[in-house]
Amino acid sequence: MTAIAAGGESSLALKNDGTVVGWGPPGAPSTEVPDGLSGVVAIAASEYHCLALKSDGTVVGWGGYQWGQATPPAGLSGVVAIAAGVTQSLALKGDGTVVGWDVDGPMTLPASLDGKKVTAISAGSYHDLALVSDRDTTGPVLNWIGAVPADSGTYDFGDLPTAGPTCTATDDTSGVTPAGYMVSGYGTAVGTHTLTATARDNAGNTTTATRTYTVRPWTLRGFYSPVDMSGVWNTVKGGSTVPLKLEVFKGSTELTDTSVITGFTQQRAACGTGGGIEDPIEVTTTGETSLRYDTGAGQFIQNWKTPKLPGACYQVTMTTADNSALSALFKLK
């Protein structure tokens, strides 16, 4: 046995397997345990009726003769405790609220319970009791930690740290749940990001804070002369070397480290349209053709060795670390 209950002439016992045994004189409510009743976790008995709380949070009642105190309200769920009085029944829900019903149907509970969290209930012959505490109706307090982007802020690519901010949360009333708090949505890639911090307390209140910010791309300038841009086909001799000259700016600051350029690719293209007809391949360079920054000219220079394929057309593309790109079209002769 895991629990017992007595009321009037009724006696109940809750067995380990979740079934209920009742005994008493003929006609006692405890002798009318419903057939098949199982999954019970708590019991209550009174003069005229009995109650059983099931593991799914629902309540089963019996007895009461022609009265309604043995009939729980339709849809009642989420119950964690029960109490049976002479002509009334009480159910304590997991959220700290109380539902009551009696011979006349649903009970009107006292206004003194408004804004309170009930933690225990008891029902008597002519009165009821509730153990209460102040109900926690406010969410946890969130505190950002680390480099937090400003809401509606704008940043150049590379200005934000790789690791995003975190947060902490406190709740002096009910405490923060074991899962605590989390931050999601941080990003350093070009585009708009929404950073969201969320915390939940043990009363079920949630606090959410957001920061929306934008990461803008670098500014690319080039390719410069002798290469023409804007969809113009540059006619060059196959096997010759073409200097690809460009500048990269982060905001108003010119970038000069070659690491900001992640690569050059050449792709066979359909002459006249520029549409690719084969996968792009990386341009490999060594010696004098290697990418460099010319401090005198204030430009990056990549010497492209053109394939020896007269009549072929190519699209050459340079990509930077922020995924910005420059492309130019070439026709070999």
What's this entry about, in short?
With 333 residues, the chain is an all-beta fold.
Folded structure, characterized:
This protein has 333 residues and is an all-beta fold. It has three domains: 3-134, Regulator of chromosome condensation 1/beta-lactamase-inhibitor protein II (Methylamine Dehydrogenase, Chain H), CATH 2.130.10.30; 141-216, Immunoglobulin-like (Sandwich); 219-332, Immunoglobulin-like (Sandwich). It has strands spanning 3-7, 10-14, 20-23, 40-45, 49-54, 59-63, 79-84, 88-93, 98-102, 105-106, 116-123, 128-134, 141-145, 154-156, 166-170, 176-184, 191-201, 206-216, 219-222, 233-236, 241-250, 253-255, 261-269, 281-282, 292-294, 299-305, 313-320, 325-332. Strands 19, 21, 22, 25 and 26 form a five-stranded antiparallel sheet that branches. The chain has a five-stranded mixed sheet with strand order 20-28-27-23-24, with no helix packed on it. A four-stranded antiparallel sheet has the order 7-8-9-10, with no helix packed on it. The protein is rod-shaped and about 110 Å long. It starts with a strand and ends with a strand. The model has no long low-confidence stretch (mean pLDDT 91).
